[in-house]
Design goal:
Elements (H helix, E strand, L loop, with lengths): L1 H38 L4 H39 L5 H27 L2
Helix pairs in contact: 1-2, 1-3, 2-3
Length: 116
């Protein structure tokens, strides 16, 4: 049962990575659509509606990142609690996910520090 908890949490973390990337990609695509609409001189109402879609996508990114961080914390606690009882391959995969998250977080913090 303990390895099952880790396996489930690994799946949750993988899904959250995909979700965050999906929203980030959606924001880039919607920004391009808004720019194109402005360049073409489209109806201001249509542009505002597309900007609302863009804002909704932007608002989802922090929420998804927060849920991803929570999933990582849960995975870390499961690794500590059940690591000895878990299959080596699954444990390695779980630790790689945590390490990837921490590396990505370190890069993000480094970039934020450069902006000051």
């Amino acid at each position: 049962m303990s390895s099952r908890k880790i396996q489930i949490q690994v799946g949750v973390c993988k899904r959250m990575v995909k979700e965050v990337k999906s929203y980030e990609k959606e924001v880039v695509e919607n920004e391009a659509v808004v720019k194109k609409m402005r360049d073409e001189g489209r109806d201001p109402y249509d542009i505002r509606k597309q900007e609302e879609v863009l804002q909704e996508s932007c608002m989802m990114i922090p929420d998804s990142k927060r849920r991803y961080e929570a999933a990582i914390e849960t995975l870390k606690s499961h690794i500590e609690e059940f690591g000895d009882e878990t299959d080596a391959a699954l444990l390695t995969e779980a630790k790689e996910i945590v390490a990837e998250f921490e590396a990505t977080n370190a890069e993000r913090e480094e970039k934020a520090g450069d902006g000051n």
